[in-house]
Amino acid sequence: MLYETNSRNVKPGQIFVAIKGHTVDGHDFIEDAIKNGAIKIIAEKEINCNVPVEVVPSTEEYLKHVLKEKYADEISKLKIIGITGTNGKTTTAFLTYQLLNSLKENCAYIGTIGIKYQDEELETDNTTPNILELYTILLNLLKKNCQTVVMEISSHALSFERIYGLKLNIVAFTNLTEDHLDYHKTMENYALAKQKLFKKLKKDGKAIVNIDDKYKDYYLLEENNNITYGFNDSDYK
Fold first, then answer.
1. CA spacing 20 to 30 A to 35: which of 4, 17, 130, 231?
2. Helix axis angle, 131-143 relative to 59-75, nearest 10°?
């Protein structure tokens, strides 16, 4: 990966993108990034240093767009399955991952209990990693002959656009119950955050929706190839 946002992780030849976060400002660590080998800085203000600096209105927006432009097409070679919902994401994603591997498909899992592929296991800080980490993980999985990735995708990840630029083959909705309202404020906002996943399907993708959940209509989008499951009038019971 050409880009890095953590000055401690910069390797010689990388470009350091100074992200202004909620608690830490990457601009304060530009000199550390240069000492570690950064050959260029992307910043939101002029910086006096001995490597080229590109000033942009928002380094966060810059990073999202450059990752999509440079790497999204390559990542699209993977089959990506995204699962969202208040409850059941981890169980559903992990069982899907195990099932696909039992069918001899090279499948990886990304979610609450970490990253799993073949004999490798790594921990993650978030259910869905930040966009730079996620793109890096997916590119590395592709190099290791991974065919399919099953991901848990949280409402926070969708709100913060951590999967920006990615198109998914299959998306699934488990359920929606009262949670995370300290951030989303209302159930409608919460439902709409998760709905973003269902707007990221490939043209031939499939959307799997729990027909029994009262918020189902947020996810049964007309433009998608919808498959329903549940105890009521559904495709699969």
1. 130
2. 20
The overall average pLDDT reported for the chain is 95
Rounded Cα distance between 80 and 134, Å, is 12
If 0-12 CB within 10 Å is exposed, 13-18 middle and 19+ buried, where does residue 230 land? Answer: middle
pTM, 2 dp? 0.93
**Quick one: pLDDT at residue 144?**
96
CA distances from 151 to 116, 148, 157, 178, 180 (A): 11, 10, 11, 22, 20
Distances (CA, A) of 233 to 120, 176, 206, 226: 41, 19, 19, 14
Furthest C-alpha separation in the chain: 66
Q: Give buried/exposed letters for 32-63 (b at 16+ CB in 10 A, else e).
A: ebbebebebbbbbeeeeeeeebeebeebbebb
pLDDT in tens, 15-45: 999 999 888 999 999 999 999 999 999 999 9
